[in-house]
Amino acid sequence: MEILIAIAIFVAITALVLWRSIRIIPQAQESVVERFGKYHRTLKSGPKVVIPFVDQIRVDVDKRDQVVSFPPQAAITQDNLGVSVDTVVYYRVTDVYNATYKVSNFITAVEQLVSATLRNVIGGMDLEQTLTSRDQINRELRSVLDEATADWGLKVTRIELKGIDPSESIQEAMEKQMRADREKRAQILQAEGDKQSAVLRAEGEKSAQVLRARGSAEAETVQAKAEAEAMTLRARGEADAISMVFKAIHAGGVDKDLLAYQYLQKLPEIAKGDSNKLWIVPTEMGANSSFWPFANQMDEITDALRGGQKAATPTEQHDAADTSEAPGRPVVDPGVDLPTAVELDAPENDQNS
Q1: Where in or outside the cell is it found (predicted)?
Q2: Of the residues 253, 273, 298, which one is the last residue of a structural domain?
């Protein structure tokens, strides 16, 4: 019985020793081993053997990229405006020994370093630069943290600003300013639009007037040319007509009776007009006169009206008056040409008569 108890105790102690001697380190993790309270070695990933009760694992360090979100940090800008900044830090442990023995708590150390550096960077910018220069702030923070954390076995890979929030009073003032700027831009754009519209309208009216003037000038020129051509053609036509009539008269051998008849037909046309009341026709013009187309035409008209009998000359009329062969005829002194007065009434008088 005592032997069985001793064997059981031995087996238990052996199992405990074996359990404490074999350690399995996960991937991307390292462990710091101390022997009798002093750094001994660093265990990599995989199964490892340590001496129980002699070697002790101080800390297990994860070498993957870590993300730490820090609470909002208060900062004051260059123009004395308070802002609250939320930051996120991405870091990675590059040296397990330095991260364990050169800083007591590297997370707290990084947080305080970020807070101090952030206040320093934002203190050199005004509010507008702070709100619009996140990339610049990230670069400056990363540069300072890389230099400070190099001895701690850390590598800051990235810093992001989640938010930069001014105070409520500043936000209200910014909203008013933005609203005023929008209204100002809207008024400027409207004024520019009205100006451009007026300029374009004036240019359009100017172009329209120029085109209208050009069109009127061209139309007048065309009309003048057309009228000139029409007058030329009309004159040529009238000349041709006169020439043809002249040739036809001379070629047809027109007698005196026809000429007298045509002359009588043209008299009413010559006397047309409301203002024509009296028309004086000379009774005789010289045979060689250039102002009368036909010699002794009045005698010929008289002969035609009398049926071919020739009109008596003033001498014959005087002789007839002395012999009383033509009673009632007026006595005309020979050698004196008296005009025959033909009274032409207006169309109203003809209708009334």
Answers
A1: Membrane
A2: 253
Is residue 268 domain-shared with residue 287, that is, in the same domain? Answer: yes
**What Rg value do the Cα atoms of the chain yield, rounded?**
68
Q: Which residues pair with 24 in a beta bridge?
A: 47
Cα–Cα distance measured from residue 262 to residue 297, given in angstroms and rounded to the nearest whole number: 12
Q: Give the total number of structural domains in the chain.
A: 4
User: Quick check: is 209 in a domain?
Assistant: yes
pTM (predicted TM-score)? 0.47
Per-residue pLDDT reduced to its tens digit, 50-59: 888 788 888 8
Beta partners for residue 56, in sequence order: 34
Q: Report residue 277's pLDDT band, with 50, 70 and 90 as the boundaries.
A: low
In a domain, 292, yes or no: yes
* Domain final position from 36, 62, 88: 62
What are the φ and ψ backbone dihedral angles of 326, each rounded to 5 degrees?
-130, 80
Q: For 206-215, 293-302, 315-324, which range has the lowest pLDDT when averaged over its residues?
A: 315-324
Between 2 and 135, the more confident residue is 135
118 and 196 co-located in one domain: no
Nearest 5 degrees, angle CA 305-CA 309-CA 310? 100
Is residue 346 assigned to a domain? yes
| Residues 192 and 275 occupy one common structural domain | no
What the block records as the tokens of 229 is 């051509």
CATH, residue 128: 3.30.479.30
Sign of the C-alpha dihedral, residues 249, 250, 252, 256?
positive
The answer to whether 84 and 72 have CB atoms below 8 angstroms apart is yes
Q: What is the pLDDT of residues 74-85, one digit of tens each?
A: 888 888 888 888
**In this structure, what token pair is assigned to residue 228?**
């000139």
CA dist 141 and 160 (Å) reads 10
Q: Which range marks the domain in which residue 28 is found?
A: 2-62
